């Protein structure tokens, strides 16, 4: 028996009695009863199947339509993270310190710090804006490139004509404190935020230098930093002295103007000075290399790791300066783009490197724009010289080593440039 509702006692008896009598009364009545029951069963089963199919399809279709800008990876268990977040919200004593946005930024920075790569850095919106200003070559601060090397914050190079250079900051200086705050475990961007500031304000750097017996506090008044791309001097001995300060956006155009002046002058040889050049854009270094190398020669090799095919970065310029004898000056402030250019000239043309071992930044970074105007400066490749040499953390070794002593700096002497002039005069 099938009922859509529970009948009253009298109704139930009548119904049962009716069915019994109908079944007993004739074979036709019995057949109708059975067929009616089977038909009801079939319809009910059919409806249940339809409902189940509709539910499953609707669930699948709805799930497939869920759109997220970046969906969390299903194979990663974030439960510990959210458990920690919830515990902080429930139990942390100073609730007013629980700034949701800053907690998110801090979590991202901590994740990146676990990579132990000082060149892969998360940039909050204000830091991203500052980074763009840096590579464009104008900002307010003290004017020096810094980096983490062997776990220590240090100066890569003071920039030309800046307060840092005027106060005697040198490549390799170790920065132990900024305004009394220790730099232990600090990131480069955290240090930049401490050192940078409006023009006219002061910052005190506690510096350690190899030849000093003790640290010194150096007070620097911040200023407007407008980094020049280069300086060109056509010497009386028909030697062009070309100093590149930075591979910034405008360096490509400034170098083209300088190259045209060299081509139109009596200069027959070139001294290329890359000392204290902290680098910049890879493509700018590639374009400048194209003036000194034949088209198609290798400038650098990008190694993406993970079994990916290496990519050759090739010279694509006009090679107008390829016939000029040249020597290159480097020191421990020569990093990144300047090391790429120096290595390319050495490996392709046998150009002599004069000075001191370069910094050793052998990686390529890309700036990825993220949500909310923040960015990620991420290492995407290691770069190798044209012959496949990695200079990461070891730098380029000079062919002719010439040290600059403290006495040389104090007296304004430049024995490295003197040696370069001596060697270039011997070249045909």
Automatic annotation (TrEMBL):
Xref: SMART domains: PDZ, TSPc
PANTHER family: CARBOXY-TERMINAL PROCESSING PROTEASE CTPA (PTHR32060:SF30), TAIL-SPECIFIC PROTEASE (PTHR32060)
Family: Belongs to the peptidase S41A family.
InterPro entries, per the entry: ClpP/crotonase-like_dom_sf, CtpA/B_N, PDZ, PDZ_6, PDZ_sf, Peptidase_S41A, Tail-specific_protease
PROSITE patterns noted in UniProt: PDZ (PS50106)
Keyword annotations: Hydrolase, Membrane, Protease, Serine protease, Transmembrane, Transmembrane helix
Protein name as catalogued: Peptidase S41
Domain spans labelled PDZ: 128-210
Mitochondrion listed as a keyword: no
Transmembrane segments: 42-62
One Pfam family linked to the record: PDZ_6
Gene Ontology biological process: proteolysis; signal transduction
Cellular component GO terms, alphabetical: outer membrane-bounded periplasmic space
GO MF assignments: endopeptidase activity; serine-type peptidase activity
């Amino acid at each position: 028996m099938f009922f859509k509702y529970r009948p009253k006692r009298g109704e139930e008896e009548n119904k049962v009695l009716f069915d019994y009598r109908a079944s007993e009364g004739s074979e036709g009545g019995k057949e109708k009863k059975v067929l009616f029951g089977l038909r009801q069963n079939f319809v009910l089963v059919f409806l249940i199947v339809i409902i189940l199919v509709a539910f499953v399809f609707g669930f699948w279709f709805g799930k497939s339509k869920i759109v997220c800008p970046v969906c969390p990876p299903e194979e990663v268990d974030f439960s510990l993270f959210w458990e920690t977040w919830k515990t902080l919200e429930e139990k942390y004593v100073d609730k007013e310190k629980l700034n949701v946005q800053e907690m998110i930024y801090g979590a991202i920075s901590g994740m990146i710090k676990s990579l132990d790569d000082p060149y892969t850095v998360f940039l909050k919106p204000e830091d991203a804006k500052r980074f763009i200003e840096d590579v464009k070559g104008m900002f307010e601060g003290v004017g020096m490139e810094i980096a983490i090397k062997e776990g220590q914050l240090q100066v890569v190079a003071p920039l030309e004509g800046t307060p840092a250079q005027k106060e005697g900051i040198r490549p390799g200086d170790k920065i132990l404190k900024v305004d009394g705050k220790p730099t232990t475990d600090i990131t480069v961007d955290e240090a930049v935020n401490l050192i940078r500031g409006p023009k006219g304000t002061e910052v005190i750097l506690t510096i350690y230098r190899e030849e000093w017996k003790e640290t010194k506090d150096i007070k620097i008044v911040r200023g407007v930093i407008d980094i020049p791309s280069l300086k060109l001097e056509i010497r009386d001995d028909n030697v062009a002295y070309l100093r590149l300060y930075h591979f910034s956006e405008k360096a490509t155009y400034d170098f083209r103007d300088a190259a045209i002046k060299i081509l139109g002058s009596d200069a027959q040889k070139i001294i290329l000075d890359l000392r204290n050049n902290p680098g910049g854009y890879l493509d700018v270094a590639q374009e400048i290399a194209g003036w000194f190398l034949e088209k198609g020669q290798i400038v650098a090799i990008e190694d993406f790791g993970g079994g990916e095919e290496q990519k050759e970065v090739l010279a694509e310029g006009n090679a107008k300066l390829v016939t000029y004898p040249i020597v290159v000056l480097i020191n421990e402030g020569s990093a990144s783009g300047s090391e790429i250019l120096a290595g390319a000239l050495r490996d392709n043309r046998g150009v002599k490197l004069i000075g001191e071992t370069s910094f050793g930044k052998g990686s390529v970074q890309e700036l990825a724009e993220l949500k909310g105007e923040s960015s990620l400066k991420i290492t995407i490749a290691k770069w190798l010289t044209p012959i496949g040499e990695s200079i990461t953390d070891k730098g380029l070794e000079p062919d002719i080593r010439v040290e600059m002593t403290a006495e040389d700096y104090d007296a304004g002497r430049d024995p490295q440039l003197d040696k370069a002039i001596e060697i270039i005069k011997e070249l045909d």
